[in-house]
Amino acid sequence: MNSYGERFRISMFGESHGELIGVVMDGVPAGIPLCEDDFLADLGRRRSGSKGTTPRKESDAPHIVSGVVDGHTTGAPLTVVFKNENTVSKDYSSFRDCPRPGHADFTASVKHNGFNDIRGGGHFSGRLTLTLVAAGVVAKKIASGITFSASITQIAGVSDSSQWENILDAALAEGDSVGGIVDCVCTGVPAGLGEPFFDSLESEIAHLAFSIPGVRGIEFGDGFAAAAMKGSGHNDCFVNANGHTATNGAGGINGGISNGNPVVFRIAVKPTSSISKVQNTLNFTTGELEDFSVKGRHDACIALRCPVIVEAIAAIALAQHL
């Protein structure tokens, strides 16, 4: 399904090359100041244009069609839509015969009996993350008092940002792509948010993190490194009665519940699947292996546009519990 949440519920719709895409948010409290300009800063952070991002340019202008009157939310479902204005659908016509390696073309066709919209990846496109960012803007207002800060910390396994431009240049020259790591810190999260087991705060954040196309992993606090640590090194000793600790190996969450320290997590983003570098893959119509190259406009590193999306999913998860 294309909906998530209970107390703050979001439903996303649309396809990459359809007329428009959008998100419906239910459970938004009435009386929150909101206008279309409030979305622009975060939407601008996701926009393409820098080296390594797609040449596809969209205005990404938000249009509120319900749930706001006189500059305030009404308590009714809040709907925000975005027009798709710069599409080149002919670039995707061959993907029925040759599904892109690493992409959802094949699985989408199997699930939807070949009726899926393949243009631009259809409903499976990273274009739909625009709606997550929009929902994140509203969620941040619900979670007022909490600060969300995400940034890229690695590209192609390299942490030194002075080398990133050369890495991107090399990938572009080869017609290839690279992945990256995005870290997120949520400061000001009160203790007590979340539930044990199935609705743990980690579960909520991870659930939403994997709604970002291309995410391959997530870890909290010390993450996988904790497996090589001793308890004395990983434990967070308390320094005051508010639950604040000397370290934050748990990433601000114990027993699925926020402990009053910053919630810290990071995600791994895979290299973009759509690359112009020639690969050898199956033509499902002829049954033969053949050389295949993806034409069109694609990001060489989708991680570059992910920080604001990661902030959005964190805000949406926390809004569920606020």
Report on the architecture of this protein.
The protein is of the alpha+beta class and 322 residues long. The protein is 21% helix and 23% strand. It is built from 7 helices and 15 strands. A 5-stranded antiparallel sheet has the order 1-2-3-7-4, covered by helices on one side. It has a 4-stranded antiparallel sheet with strand order 8-9-13-10, with helices on one face. A two-stranded antiparallel ribbon has the order 5-6. A hairpin with a 2-residue loop joins β11 and β12. α5 runs antiparallel to α7. The longest helix has 15 residues. The chain is globular, with a radius of gyration of 21 Å. The relative contact order is 0.18.
Radius of gyration: 21 Å
For the largest sheet, list the strands in their spatial order. Answer: 1-2-3-7-4
Measured as a percent range, the helix fraction is 10-25%
Low-confidence stretches: none
Give, in order, the helices and strands: EEEHEEEEHHEHEHEHEEEEEH
Report, as a whole number of angstroms, the end-to-end distance.
Answer: 24 Å
How is the secondary structure organized here?
Elements: E1 3-4, E2 9-14, E3 20-26, H1 40-46, E4 63-66, E5 68-69, E6 72-73, E7 78-83, H2 105-111, H3 129-142, E8 147-155, H4 164-174, E9 180-187, H5 201-209, E10 215-220, H6 231-234, E11 253-254, E12 257-258, E13 263-269, E14 279-283, E15 288-292, H7 307-321
Antiparallel strand pairs: 1-2, 2-3, 3-7, 4-7, 5-6, 8-9, 9-13, 10-13, 11-12, 14-15
Helix pairs in contact: 3-7, 5-7
